[in-house]
């Protein structure tokens, strides 16, 4: 069973992971929960870990994994108002197959994507309507955005993106890279999320957006 605050935080973390592909920062969680200090967030996360709803991967920045979500139940006389029942059945959501286009460098650009016969199974509830594909990340230039070497990023195919979104960018019809996009006049800045790498500035006419980040799959061995 979860308290209301634990339940609210778990849903916020799950929503953030599905929307951005990485877990929220402690400041973002503190703001979402309306708490004044990070110590309250630490206690809530520890409680979620103890109850098996959340897994924290230590030695990795912003690495939280939602194991499963609770089943909302109506309160009764036997349950306090601040408690939510948990569903421990761990039923697996239906899977969706999306094409896996191989590797994309999160550090240096690589050659453009080619067609593939390889597919990746992802939970259906991980995406909404639209066309999606997956790429395997190589390199560490997006590590501070929670994207690590070996991760599979789920990309929603689109030619549009807003400033600050992480996109797959095709440069000069020959290079593909995964970076955060910033428009600056007639140029586009492709920003890494690692201070060891430099931002790349590209004239807008030389760049085509191939999609934007919709989610992330990580396997632990």
TrEMBL record:
Residue(s) at site: Cleavage: 106-107
Record-annotated Peptidase S24/S26A/S26B/S26C domain positions: 99-213
Protein name per UniProt: LexA repressor
Catalyzed reactions: Hydrolysis of Ala-|-Gly bond in repressor LexA
Function according to Swiss-Prot or TrEMBL: Represses a number of genes involved in the response to DNA damage (SOS response), including recA and lexA. In the presence of single-stranded DNA, RecA interacts with LexA causing an autocatalytic cleavage which disrupts the DNA-binding part of LexA, leading to derepression of the SOS regulon and eventually DNA repair.
PANTHER family: LEXA REPRESSOR, LEXA REPRESSOR-RELATED
EC number(s) per entry: 3.4.21.88
Coiled coil regions, renumbered to chain: none
CDD domains per record: S24_LexA-like
Domain LexA repressor DNA-binding: 2-63
SUBUNIT field: Homodimer.
InterPro entries given in the database record: LexA (IPR006200), LexA-like (IPR039418), LexA/Signal_pep-like_sf (IPR036286), LexA_DNA-bd_dom (IPR006199), LexA_repressor (IPR050077), Peptidase_S24_LexA (IPR006197), Peptidase_S24_S26A/B/C (IPR015927), WH-like_DNA-bd_sf (IPR036388)
MF annotations from Gene Ontology: DNA binding; serine-type endopeptidase activity
Active site per the UniProt annotation: 141, 179
């Amino acid at each position: 069973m979860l308290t209301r605050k634990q339940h609210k935080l778990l849903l916020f973390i799950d929503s953030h992971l599905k929307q951005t592909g990485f877990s929220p920062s402690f400041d973002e969680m503190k703001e979402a929960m309306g708490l004044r200090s990070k110590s309250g967030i630490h206690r809530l996360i520890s409680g979620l870990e103890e109850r098996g709803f959340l897994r924290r991967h230590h030695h990795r920045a912003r690495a939280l994994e939602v194991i499963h979500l609770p089943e909302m139940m109506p309160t009764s006389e036997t349950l306090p108002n601040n408690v939510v029942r948990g569903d421990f059945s761990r039923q697996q959501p239906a899977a969706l197959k999306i094409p896996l286009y191989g590797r994309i460098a999160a550090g240096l650009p690589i050659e453009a994507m080619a067609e593939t016969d390889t597919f990746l199974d992802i939970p259906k509830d991980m995406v909404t309507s639209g066309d999606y594909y997956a790429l395997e990340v190589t390199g560490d230039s997006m590590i501070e955005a929670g994207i690590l070497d070996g991760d599979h990023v789920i990309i929603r195919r689109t030619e549009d993106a807003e400033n600050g979104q992480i996109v797959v960018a095709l440069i000069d019809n020959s290079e593909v890279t995964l970076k955060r996009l910033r428009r600056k006049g007639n140029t586009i800045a492709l920003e890494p999320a690692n201070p060891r790498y430099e931002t790349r500035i590209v004239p807008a006419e030389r760049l085509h957006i191939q999609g934007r980040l919709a989610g992330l799959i990580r396997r632990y061995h």
